[in-house]
Amino acid sequence: MAVLACPNSADGLDDLVPVRGAGDDLAYVIYTSGSTGRPKGAMVHRAGMNNHLQAKVDDLTLTDSDVLVQNAALTFDISVWQMVAALMEGGRTTVYGDDTALDPIGLFTRAHHDGATILEVVPSLLRATLDAWDTLDNAARTPHTTTAAPALPHLRTLVVTGETLPPDLCTRWFTRYPHIDIINAYGPTECSDDVTHAHLTVGSPGSRTRVPIGRVVRNTRLYVLDPSLRPVPVGARGELFVGGTGVGRGYLDDPAKTAAVFVPDPFSTTQGARMYATGDVVRYLPDGELEFLGRRDHQVKIRGQRIELGEIEHTLREQPGVTDAVVLDRPHPSGTTALVGYVTGTAQPEQARAALARTLPEAMVPSVVVSLDAMPITPNGKIDRAALPAPDLTTRRAPHREPRTLDERLLAELFAEVLGVERVGLDDDFFALGGHSLLATQLIARIRSDFDVQLPLRTLFETPVLEPLAAEITTLVAAGARDGDHSVGVEELLAEIEHLSDEETDALLSDSSGRL
């Protein structure tokens, strides 16, 4: 162990005081954010803390030659291992203040000068760093210009934690540093920090669309369970439960919240063993690694359908020009719930939304996508979802243009009646004004009745703006596309769409025959 240098060391006691309480005694309390907005004090015991420290020593193969950066705030659980793990093997810990720790360029520059061998960051900061290096490189591009990124000759492992690690960040990192591996670490504060590590090398994660969170660390058990606490098969989605040495004591002075998520472990042979319900949705991959799919509390119900916001975020990040994405549910003035997407990068919001409309079920397509220069960040470096701006869902994106033709005026009246809004213009989008699948069926039924045309439901999803939709209706009227005996009432439309499976819904939306 390293020794603190004391100027008046002669005043210290000669005898070492034995360390007491290496088991269930409380080691520390770290407050984590709660879904209600009130932080919870997670209590971690010494056995869990020591086990996690040893897991870091083992999996990072720490030695007395390592220099570990302590750049996390003391209110962040990863600060514990950052401070102590290298010292356990006789290595060195170099401590950075916030000015350096939160500076995307300054952090890596300082790590370079200090000869750091292990550095841990969150994906948001890593993206900001890579973006900054790219910008500087492009601005100073000459035949004799060197890259803005430091060489980092001593850094051997970059640990990434705290958020989902997108594959493109791995690719960009290994393009610059093919010799510096990445450890993708995952774990809840309630379980003494990380419970899995994924070791990534150049070429990782290959063709995968998600970066795995890896395999379990020492003295830890992971269970992927269904709502009845039964294990699910490989590849199936389930909630992750953590058992073993690292499971903490619960929440300080909050027995109700403790009892809700620290539950008896039915798979353990140890009397009184508990497991922690993470609230994270994961699945086991065939190779034994875990894949993180999203948060259970990021699931929302939109018009009776359970929606995984992480799935929408994942699809948004795959769109060209999108560097990062967050999706939230927001109350809509119409009384419904609207999804709002937030993206950074060069992608046009409407193009990103249109791309989602082509690949996702209608209920999963955000009513609006907002472009941001950067995501708001918490003091711990994570995306601050609570600080994302609330868009005005009733604001039109273009100046109001009055309908001109008879068909446009009639369609505008139908939009207004179905959506419960006062005025609709040529550039207004049905879904951006609060429309959804059930209201869409009502609108289609009214269009078929009032215009006497057979307009497929799919057309509204593909052409939700009034002017081009009116043009489509005009074309059908001119072509004589009549309903005849095939008309379907709104009640039948609602009944059919409510009872469709996901596969049947996809088939319905792709059915060009216009049967509905």
Strand order of the largest sheet: 5-6-7-8-9
Quote the beta fraction.
Answer: 15-25%
Q: Could you name the ranges where pLDDT drops below 50 across 5 or more consecutive residues?
A: 1-19, 481-496, 503-516
Total count of domains: 3
How would you describe the shape? globular
CATH topology of the largest domain: Rossmann fold
Helix content: 25-40%
CATH class of the largest domain: Alpha Beta
CATH homologous superfamily title of the largest domain: ANL, N-terminal domain
- Count of extended strands: 20
Please report the number of helical segments.
15
The CATH architecture of the largest domain can be named as 3-Layer(aba) Sandwich
The multimeric state of the shown protein is: single chain
Q: Calculate the mean pLDDT score and round it.
A: 84
* Largest sheet properties: 5 strands, mixed
> Any idea what the radius of gyration is?
28 Å
Q: By helix and strand content, what is the structural category?
A: alpha+beta
Report how far apart the termini are. Answer: 73 Å
Protein name: Putative Linear gramicidin synthase subunit D
Keywords: Phosphopantetheine, Phosphoprotein
Cofactor: pantetheine 4'-phosphate
Organism: Streptomyces afghaniensis 772
